[in-house]
Structures are given as structure tokens and as C-alpha cells.
UniProtKB/TrEMBL annotation:
Annotated G-protein coupled receptors family 2 profile domain residues: 390-683
High-level lineage: Eukaryota, Metazoa, Chordata, Craniata, Vertebrata
Principal location class: membrane
Membrane topology qualifier: Multi-pass membrane protein
SUPFAM superfamilies in the record: Family A G protein-coupled receptor-like
A GO BP entry: cell surface receptor signaling pathway
Name of protein: AGRG7 protein
Pfam families referenced in this protein's UniProt entry, alphabetically: 7tm_2, GPR128_GAIN_subdom_B, GPR128_GAIN_subdomA, GPR128_N, GPS
Gene name in the database record: Adgrg7
Length: 745
């Protein structure tokens, strides 16, 4: 925000990016300045494999905390033919990334064969099954729905083995497998047949959490015995600087605390108020995302991670649960608009807000009155933030443009007979469509439902907000089928239509310029204005109707429009630009074709008319140059050539995109004002009218001489001769658009 505090500059190393005064490092580097190595170099390890054969295993660079697969594969004729024969992990010992010993895969086992063995396997074979399962799921991007289901069932069966927590190797391998499953593609979890499997896995994880303490990249399990005098127990994940050099996350459990931790470095925390303590145990599971908790009514946003914290008590009950979450999404790009507290109902296998209330201060807070096992999630509504200067430029520029467009239309209509110009209808139609678009844009581009939460940003900065049960509902943005908003859909349709119409009229203006200036010897086609009107208003209507009919469905309005803004949908669930959304094929592509057409006409007019050398020109070179610049600018503005800058905003580089955003905003928000200046204020007729009404503002006329050819035309045929003259222009833009030929009939 332009009005917010200025973050101090940072000198990031190794391609780190300074953001809000902090270095955001690539995954290969960590530390305050991205100065510390966070990977293990490529390696070769000699290992004895099946049959006692020594084999060199080659591994590429490995990020700390991750596994890498070997370049060597299983033999093609084995069950796991062409699958990597081993994996190796990189860990950190102190400051130094350290490679662990490779784990070797049994090439004659796959997930299906392991699943058939695990139920009857004795304790001595469990570690091998767990290790092979971990290796077979070590490339999450290749996992399918079926392989996820099979691996999850293997994990459930292993975790249910008696005293499995005493086998550290098997337990660690299973947790690594679960962590890898959470890295699988989001789309693979959308199948209904996975819901029962993941539900079984999460229940089993809760039971396992009572006896183990294991942390992996996507999941952490912590347990603690309850003392007889324990009344509260707090589990939290907190940012801290390990050994003074590495920012990481610390998991901790504290007993008999008075309340939640107020340290702002605490990312997520959960407080249990214990009653009927029978010297039991408490266990917690922290999930880095919500892929195991798929809902029928709630949708997940892939653009950011949602942590889920799960708790379980054995030998006691809770009188209530409190949760606090430190929002990470108040940045220079977007801010948190609202949140809701939901818990996982194991009876319905879905999220629910029943029994939970929410509050907000420096943390997002929840209270739930559940007394048994639970999983709690914060859901969010995000409001994207844009640089304040862009907002100011938009409103000021559009306001001036609207005034300029009204003046231009009135001037063109009132003075048509005086000017004897055929430009009126074409220019008025362009100005009218642009004016209506600007009016709708200013008044309705932002979704009214979004504006209902406009005070949340201020409320976030105020004092602690009491818990509220009535307002704790699943947010509209998080529903699979959000309620219909006919108003926003109607606004999106009108914006789509009038902006397409605006571009269509720029194309028709370029067509008219081509006919008048480059085909001057031929009269305009019959019923020209009528035909142009049908094309100018009809084709955009057809495009909008087809787009709306193809994409819009009852309850699926977001297939056509966006949620935050009443404009065409363009992003997928992961907030990546989608080729399937209507923004591309119903707007960007048609507009690109129109701009290409306009650009070709512009080049022809510029080379053949405006900048064509004239040896008979008697005016000085400076006057001629300025006249040509103004004439060129007039054509650029009326043909909308400046809108091509919008395509440069798609460049995926923040600073470059921001620069083009400013250029685009300045040029196109003021397009109506530019038209008014070039096609109205510079007109001698306008100057004369103004000087008559406001003598004090009398503006002397400065003639701008344009070269023209005057053809003498009889009623039946063209004269055999023509003469060249030089004359003061009525208005440079009119000369360019239609009056360069002064007596063409």
C-alpha cells in the first residue's frame, strides 16, 4: 500500500527477492539473506542390492528435507520395471546439509502386492513394507487416485499394528509416505472413492498421535501424557531462529497455561480445556494442507495452503477448544477480508460450523465446544490489493474521460451541419459505447457481496473483537455452489458487451479511414452507416450471447464471471491463467484480432498519408513535424492502439508487469479525454464557440496547413484533372479521419 509503512531494503543473495523488508529465498537457499546452502550436492553411493551385487547409485541435488530418486532403475522384466531402485534423503545436521544412507526398493514389489501382504505381515516384515511403500510414493506428481488409495490403505494397516510406535523405522517411513501423499496433485483427490480412504487414514492418524512424536515436511505428530493436575494443554507451531541462523517452525506442547500464546511468531495454536482427567494422553496432528479433508459443500483454494490441526484425548474430555491462527495473507498483494471457523464432523465426513464461534484481533480466533476428537480449519476470503496510485489514476482518468466523451458526443451532434463531416455517427457510437462501459465499470465492477466486508481491514487493526457465533458461517467464496448473484452477473455481461462494442467501433472507424484516405477515388458503399451499425452493435451481442450460453449454468456463475470482480472468469482453482475460461477466447482473442487489424490500417495511413513526403510543402519543417505527430496521435487514440499495452501486462515478472500496468492505466483510463482534446478542443469551431461565450478564454486560432488533393467531380464522372492546394485545417483530427478529401462526393 502506498500509505503503509515503508519496509527497509534488503540485500538478498543467490537470487533471493526482497519482499516487505524480508528476503524470500529460492528453495536451494535459506537464511536472513539467502546465504545458507539448503541442499545436498549430487552424489554417488555404492550399495549392495539383491544377490549381494554392488551397484553405484547416482542421485541429483537434493533439497534439505526431501528425497531424491536414483538414476538407476529396476530391470524392465521386474514388477517395478523402470522404477528408481533407491531413494536418498538430505537432512540438516547443525548448519550442514547431510545425506542419509539410501533406501533400496525391492524391484519385485509394487503397491498392490504390498497391500496384499500388509494385513497378514508379522512385525518383522512391517519395516520392509513401510520402506518400499515410501519409495514407491517418492514422486508425488506421478501418483494417481488409485495409487494414493492403495498407499493410504497400506499406511492405515501399518499404523493399526499393535505397538507400532515402538518401531521407529516403520513409523517414520509411514509418516514420510503420508507426507508424500499430501504433495500429490490436487485433482487426484477430487474422486469420491477416495473420501472413505482418507477419512479412515485421518482417524487412524489421530489414534497414532497419542503415542508418537514425528515431524515430516507436510505433517507433524505430537503427543504428551496428561498429568492429574492438568487443566489446560496448549499445542502450537511457532516460527523461531534455530541456532541463530535458520528460520524454521518449532512444535511445542505446554500444560496448565492460562490461555493462548500471544507471541506473533506463533503460526497456529490450539488450547484444550481438560475435564475428567484420568491420567491419559493427548495427541495432535498438524496437516500442511487440506487434501485429506475433501468436502461436498466446501471447496479448497489451491492458491494458498490451509493448515489443519487435529486433536485427540484419551483418558479425559475437554470442555472446549480454542484456536488461534496468525494470518499470512496480509501482504502488499492481497489482504485477508474475512474468515470462518469450521471443524471436521466425522459422522458426516464434512466440515461444519456448528458449535464454533469466531473472533479477531492480531490473530484469527475460534472457540468450539466439542468434547471429543476434532479437526479444526480456518477458511478465508481474500481481497486482492492493488497499488493505490493505480486506483487513483483509474478513478480520476475515467472521471475525466466520461466528461470528455459527453462533450465530444454533444459537439459532434450539434455541429454536424456546420462541420459538413461524415465522421459524426462513427465517432459518436465509439464514444457512447466507451461512456457506458466507463459508467458501469466505476459503479459496478466490484462485487457488492465483496464490498459488504469492506470494513474488515479497519476492524483488523482495532481492538480485540469478541467471539461471535451468529457470524461464523461458511464463506460464500468457500462454497462449492455459491449463492447466485444476478446483479454481478448482469454487470459482467454488460461490461463484456460494451467493451467489445468499443473495440468493434474502433475497427469500424479504421475501416472508414481506409475507405476515405486510401481508396479516395471510390465512394463509400451504399447504406454504409446502417451496415456499420449492424456490425458495431450486433457482433459484440452475438459473442456475449454465445459466451454466456456456453459457460453460465444455474449455481455455476463463476464459470462465466469472477467472484471478486464482476468481470469475465480467467483463473482456475489454483489462481493460474486458464485457457478454458471465457476471458481468453471471448475477449482477449477477439480484441487481439481487432487490434491487429487496426494496427495494419494505422501503418498504412501513417506511411501513405500522414508521413508521406511532399516536395511542394512550403511550411517550415518544425510545423510540419508537429502537425504529423498530432495527426498520428489522433489516429492512435481513435483506433485504440494503446490497448496493446494490456497484453504486455501478462508478462510474468512483477516489476515489469507493474510498469506496464501504470502505462496501460494512464493511456486507456484517459482515452475519452484524449478523444475530447484531439477531436473537440482543437477544433476551430469549438474554439470559436468558446470564445463567443467566454471572451476571457478566447483562444487565437493557429492554422495548421495540411497538404490535400481537391478532385473536381461532375455528376457522372471524375474530371480528368486535379490540382494540389494547401489550406488551413479545420481540425487536424478531422482532416485525418474524413475531411482530408474536402469535396469528395
Amino acid at each position: 500500500e502506498a500509505t503503509g509503512p515503508v519496509s527497509p531494503p534488503c540485500s538478498c543473495l543467490n537470487d533471493g527477492v526482497c519482499q516487505d523488508g524480508t528476503c524470500v529465498c529460492p528453495e536451494e537457499w535459506v537464511g536472513p539473506l539467502c546465504e545458507l546452502v539448503n541442499f545436498c550436492e549430487a552424489s554417488i553411493y555404492t550399495e549392495s542390492i539383491a544377490g549381494g551385487i554392488l551397484k553405484n547409485l547416482t542421485f541429483q541435488r537434493i533439497i534439505v528435507g526431501r528425497y531424491s530418486s536414483s538414476a538407476e532403475k529396476c530391470e524392465p522384466d521386474t514388477v517395478n520395471g523402470n522404477h528408481s531402485i533407491a531413494i536418498r534423503m538430505c537432512t540438516r545436521v547443525g548448519k550442514t546439509p547431510t545425506l542419509q544412507r539410501p533406501q533400496i526398493l525391492n524391484c519385485n514389489e509394487n503397491l498392490d502386492s504390498l497391500a496384499s501382504q500388509v494385513e497378514t505381515a508379522d512385525f518383522s516384515n512391517i519395516s520392509a513394507i513401510a520402506s518400499n511403500t515410501q519409495i514407491l510414493t517418492s514422486m508425488p506428481d506421478r501418483l494417481t487416485t488409485q495409487s494414493i488409495s492403495t498407499a493410504a490403505n497400506i499406511a492405515v494397516n501399518i499404523l493399526r499394528k499393535p505397538n507400532i510406535s515402538t518401531d521407529s523405522q516403520a513409523s517414520t517411513s509411514v509418516m514420510a509416505t503420508v507426507s508424500q501423499l499430501l504433495d500429490a496433485n490436487e485433482t487426484e483427490f477430487n474422486h469420491n472413492n477416495l473420501s472413505d480412504v482418507t477419512a479412515s487414514l485421518t482417524r487412524t492418524m489421530e489414534e497414532f498421535s497419542l503415542t508418537s512424536n514425528i515431524t515430516k515436511s507436510n505433517i507433524a505428530i505430537q503427543s504428551v501424557p496428561l498429568k492429574l493436575n492438568s487443566s489446560t494443554i496448549l499445542f502450537f507451531a511457532q516460527k523461531y531462529t534455530e541456532l541463530g541462523y535458520l528460520l524454521s517452525t518449532k512444535l511445542e506442547i505446554q500444560e496448565n497455561v492460562p490461555g493462548l500464546n500471544e507471541d506473533l511468531n506463533t503460526e497456529v495454536q490450539i488450547l484444550l480445556n481438560i475435564m475428567n482427567n484420568k491420567n491419559g494422553r493427548a495427541g495432535f496432528v498438524l496437516y500442511q494442507n487440506s487434501k485429506f479433508f475433501k468436502s461436498r459443500t466446501y471447496k479448497s483454494h489451491g492458491s494458498f495452503s490451509k493448515r489443519i490441526v487435529s486433536g485427540n484425548i484419551d483418558g479425559g474430555r475437554t470442555s472446549g477448544v480454542e484456536l488461534a491462527f496468525s494470518p499470512k495473507y496480509n501482504t502488499s498483494e492481497f489482504q485477508l477480508r474475512d474468515h470462518a471457523c469450521v471443524f471436521w464432523d466425522y459422522d458426516t465426513n464434512d466440515w461444519s460450523t456448528t458449535g464454533c464461534t469466531k473472533g479477531r484481533d492480531q490473530f484469527l480466533r475460534c472457540k468450539c465446544n466439542h468434547t471429543t476428537n476434532f479437526a479444526v480449519l480456518m477458511t478465508f476470503q481474500i481481497k486482492y490489493k492493488y497499488a493505490k496510485p493505480l486506483e487513483y489514476i483509474s478513478y480520476i482518468g475515467i472521471g475525466l474521460s466520461m466528461a470528455g466523451l459527453v462533450i465530444t458526443m454533444l459537439f459532434q451532434i450539434v455541429t454536424r451541419k456546420t462541420r459538413k463531416s461524415s465522421v459524426t455517427w462513427m465517432l459518436v457510437s465509439l464514444c457512447f459505447s466507451m461512456l457506458i462501459f466507463n459508467i458501469i465499470f466505476i459503479s459496478g465492477i466490484e462485487n457488492r457481496n465483496a464490498r459488504n466486508y469492506g470494513s474488515d481491514t479497519t476492524r483488523y487493526e482495532q481492538q480485540y473483537q469478541s467471539y461471535d457465533a451468529t457470524d461464523n458461517t461458511l464463506l460464500t467464496s468457500d462454497l462449492v455452489d455459491p449463492p447466485a448473484d444476478p446483479w454481478c452477473t448482469a454487470v459482467a455481461v454488460l461490461l463484456h458487451y460494451f467493451l467489445l462494442a468499443t473495440f468493434m467501433w474502433t475497427a469500424l472507424n479504421s475501416t472508414q479511414l481506409y475507405l476515405l484516405l486510401l481508396r479516395a477515388m471510390q465512394p463509400l458503399p451504399g447504406r454504409f452507416i446502417v451496415n456499420m451499425s449492424v456490425v458495431g452493435w450486433g457482433i459484440p451481442a452475438m459473442v456475449v450471447a454465445i459466451t454466456f450460453g456456453v459457460t453460465y449454468r444455474e449455481g455455476k456463475a463463476l464459470n462465466y464471471r469472477q467472484e471478486e470482480f464482476c468481470w469475465l472468469a480467467s483463473l482456475d482453482e489454483n489462481h493460474n491463467f486458464s485457457m478454458e475460461k471465457p476471458m481468453l477466447w471471448s475477449f482477449l482473442l477477439p480484441v487481439a484480432l481487432i487490434l491487429l487489424f487496426n494496427f495494419i490500417i494505422f501503418i498504412n495511413i501513417t506511411v501513405s498519408v500522414i508521413w508521406k513526403d511532399n516536395k511542394n510543402l512550403t511550411r517550415n519543417k518544425k510545423d510540419s513535424f508537429m502537425k504529423r505527430v498530432i495527426g498520428t496521435t489522433s489516429v492512435v487514440v481513435v483506433l485504440g492502439i494503446t490497448w496493446t499495452v494490456g497484453y504486455l501486462m501478462l508478462i510474468n515478472q512483477e516489476e515489469t508487469s507493474l510498469i506496464f500496468s501504470y502505462v496501460f492505466c494512464i493511456l486507456n483510463c484517459t482515452q475519452g479525454l484524449q478523444i475530447c482534446i484531439l477531436y473537440t478542443f482543437r477544433s476551430p469551431i469549438f474554439k470559436k464557440k468558446v470564445s463567443e461565450v467566454f471572451l476571457v478564454f478566447s483562444m487565437p486560432e493557429i492554422p495548421a496547413y495540411l497538404h490535400s488533393k481537391i478532385y473536381y467531380v461532375s455528376k457522372s464522372h471524375l474530371a480528368k484533372h486535379a490540382k494540389e492546394t494547401f489550406r488551413p485545417s479545420r481540425m487536424v483530427s478531422e482532416d485525418i479521419s474524413s475531411s482530408t478529401l474536402s469535396n469528395c462526393s
